[in-house]
Amino acid sequence: MGKWARSCALCHVTGEAGAPIAGDSAQWQRRLAQGEESILQRVLEGYNSMPPLGYCMSCEVKDFRAMVGFMAGINQ
């Protein structure tokens, strides 16, 4: 998952700036409860310290869906 390693991992491995940590199901369940569209909107537009597109300028919506699923532990 090269795109993830070059973009999402920058913050989602350590929890930098309050980012939910990849694999921490409790942190991700709270976000997933808001719905996939809400999460995607935040990724696309930016949210708190996360910039728009989360540093992945070459990613498409399908990429973001896959990366969120990976971090939340639902696409493994």
What secondary-structure arrangement, pairings included, does this model have?
Elements: H1 2-6, H2 9-12, H3 25-32, H4 36-45, H5 61-72
Helix pairs in contact: 4-5
CATH architecture tag? Orthogonal Bundle
The CATH superfamily name is: Cytochrome c-like domain
Main sheet characteristics? none
Write down the domain tally.
Answer: 1
What is Rg?
Answer: 11 Å
Number of helices: 5
Number of strands: 0
**Can you tell me the overall shape?**
globular
Supply the CATH class: Mainly Alpha
Give the terminus-to-terminus CA distance.
12 Å
Fill in the CATH topology.
Answer: Cytochrome Bc1 Complex, Chain D, domain 2
**What structural class is derived from the secondary structure elements?**
mainly alpha
Mean pLDDT: 93
Helix content: 40-55%
| Helix-strand sequence | HHHHH
Low-confidence stretches: none
Please report which band the strand proportion falls in: under 5%, 5-15%, 15-25%, 25-35%, 35-45% or over 45%.
Answer: under 5%
